[in-house]
Write a structure and sequence with these properties.
This protein has about 425 residues and is α+β, with helices and mostly antiparallel strands. It has three domains: about 80 residues; about 120 residues, no CATH class; about 170 residues, no CATH class. About 40% of the residues lie in helices and about 20% in strands. Strands 6, 7, 8, 9, 10, 11, 12 and 13 form an eight-stranded antiparallel sheet that branches. A hairpin with a 5-residue loop joins strand 8 and strand 9.
């Protein structure tokens, strides 16, 4: 084995959503293995090193990955320690840790090219992860310091930005401070930043003073909100709330394929000739986090219509025994596929029809179980779009029905396949 090949394993003090089962996440071209906390081991992440991507580079990307998770989830996450091994990733024994169950945030992992934006994210993680309010305050303020070197300019930026803060807790604290302080920017700079950073300042933030700690703790939401505003609006890293508000992620891949002109026409609800819309010849319908359903893979795709801001895509198997309808609502940035109403399986009594029906029932059952529809370009294995989570309303689902029907169809398929 080459000396430059190995595994970096990083043990974590984890306060951010983390998988309960081992999961793999792709970030900046590198695979991260996220390992859950167990009775014996700490939550950890693993990244493989190779020629040209050694221990130091792996640590750098791992830290940046943690900073992105901290930004996306607005929670702290810190490294306990790291170990390097050559044969296989090491298990990390645990001490008391807090486990937060749930899947890792794979939908939105910003990767800014600007080194200053990356530094701002690192400082943000430091601010959320520090265990003393003084250090948290200072870490958030350093993000403002990145924008302006001089204290007066920092104070002006704060005063100009306070009216743009929408966080309730921060806005409430600003209103309280303004009752006794006319220049909040100067107040946060002198009584906050300088009092924490310099022991010769007047006043000095004394870590043993309940009054000082209480004041800084009360001001902390303001500094965090200012830091978040700077990261998003000055350094260009969108927050999760902005991503959700813009809601451009459901049709992102289709938007790239169709091009700006076609998308603009669709958003204006112009009628576009179906022939003018070029989509991949083969598409696969999947459900996020589920195994693939072979009958829904590499289906022939054809644009049926494009009107009122919606592109209707017809999908069918090569033998045309199963057909489906996919709707791309560009006017509202939505992707919809109703696995109950938009799929037709023609049962000609063959084994093939039985297997198609089994796949449809399996897909439908998982779709009703809070499924998330994903549309993939079959040739390139690129995801083109996804739906929101399916939440059935005003229905009672007989789960036993699916199991019974699937078993009956399997028996039918087996009998049919056994016939000479």
């Amino acid at each position: 084995m080459k000396e430059d090949h190995g595994f970096l394993t990083m043990a974590l003090e984890n306060g951010t959503p983390w998988p309960c089962q081992e999961a793999t996440v792709l970030f900046r071209g590198h695979e991260f293995i996220l390992r859950p906390e167990t009775e014996d081991n700490s939550p950890s992440l693993v990244i493989e090193t190779s020629a040209g991507f050694g221990h130091e580079q792996a640590c750098q990307v791992a830290y940046e990955f943690l900073s992105v998770l901290s930004w996306v989830n607005q929670t702290g996450i810190v490294e306990r320690f790291s170990v390097f091994s050559t044969a296989a990733p090491m298990a990390i024994g645990k001490r008391e840790c807090r486990l937060v169950g749930g899947a890792p945030p794979q939908e939105y992992l910003p990767s800014p090219d600007d080194p200053r934006a990356r530094l701002a994210l690192a400082l943000y993680r430091e601010g959320l992860s520090a265990n003393m309010v003084t250090y948290r305050f200072l870490a958030f303020f350093k993000i403002i310091n990145m924008l302006h070197r001089m204290g007066q300019d920092q104070q002006k930026w704060i005063n100009d930005t306070l009216s743009k803060i929408t966080d309730y807790e921060a806005s409430t604290r600003v209103a309280q401070i303004s009752k006794t302080v006319s220049d909040i920017g100067k107040y946060l700079y002198v009584s906050g930043r300088c009092s924490v950073a310099h022991a010769f300042s007047t006043p000095v933030a004394n870590p043993d003073s309940p009054q000082d700690i209480q004041r800084l703790r009360a001001d902390l939401p303001v500094m965090q909100a200012l830091a978040e505003y700077a990261i998003e609006n000055e350094f260009g890293v969108k927050s999760v709330s902005t991503i959700l508000r813009e809601h451009l992620y459901e049709l992102q891949g289709f938007r790239e394929i169709l091009g700006e002109a076609i998308v603009a026409a669709l958003k204006c609800e112009d009628t576009v000739p179906p022939g003018a819309i070029q989509i991949p010849e083969r598409l696969s319908l999947r459900l996020k986090g589920r195994s693939v359903y072979s009958s829904f893979e590499a289906m022939k795709a054809q644009v049926l219509a494009a009107e009122h801001g919606t592109v209707s895509v017809g999908l069918e198997t090569d033998d045309s025994l199963m057909k489906a309808l996919l709707l791309l609502h560009f006017r509202h940035e939505r992707l919809t596929f109703n696995a109950m109403e938009d799929v037709i399986v023609s049962d000609d009594g063959t084994t093939r029809a039985a297997r198609l029906r089994i796949d449809h029932l399996s897909y439908l059952r998982d779709w009703l179980s809070n499924g998330i529809v994903e549309v993939w370009q079959s040739a390139s294995e690129k995801r083109l779009g996804r739906s929101e989570v399916v939440v059935p309303r005003n229905v009672w689902i007989n789960w036993r029905y699916f199991d019974e029907q699937i078993e009956q169809l399997k028996e039918r398929a087996a009998v049919s396949a056994a016939r000479p």
